[in-house]
Design goal:
Keywords: Membrane, Transmembrane, Transmembrane helix. InterPro entries: DUF7521. The structure is a single chain. This protein is mostly helical. The chain has a domain of about 80 residues. It starts with 5 loop residues before the first helix and ends with a helix.
Length: about 110
């Protein structure tokens, strides 16, 4: 018997194929793990910024958050709590990932 939250997770996580509860749980676990690991790494970069007052470290921290945690929250939140079409959710998450990559590139090169 499947838990009562399984269909909601399948919708929220945009699992397009009908999968078992184990598959949905694995998708959700990887989703949470990647967001948490991104936040942990960004925290370390922010601590480096605070310790050395290095603006590249600040942009690195911002980029990592925009690349990992923000898209995960947007993907879950927008698909669950709004009526936006799936393509709009993908566009928003892709734009935040792009902004994260730009911030990381700026932290590495200082200018474009």
């Amino acid at each position: 018997m499947s838990p009562p939250y399984a269909p909601a997770l399948q919708i929220a996580l945009q699992v397009t194929e009908t999968g078992s509860d184990t598959q949905v749980a694995l998708v959700f676990a990887s989703f949470v793990a990647s967001a948490l690991l991104g936040l942990f790494i960004a925290r370390k970069a922010y601590q480096g910024y605070r310790r050395n007052e290095s603006s590249p470290m600040l942009f690195l921290a911002i980029g990592i958050v925009l690349l990992t945690a923000v898209p995960a929250v947007f993907s879950f939140g927008l698909s669950t709590f709004t009526s936006l079409p799936g393509s709009a959710v993908v566009i928003v998450t892709n734009l935040t990932e792009l902004a994260g990559l730009v911030a990381i590139a700026y932290s590495l090169y200082g200018r474009f």
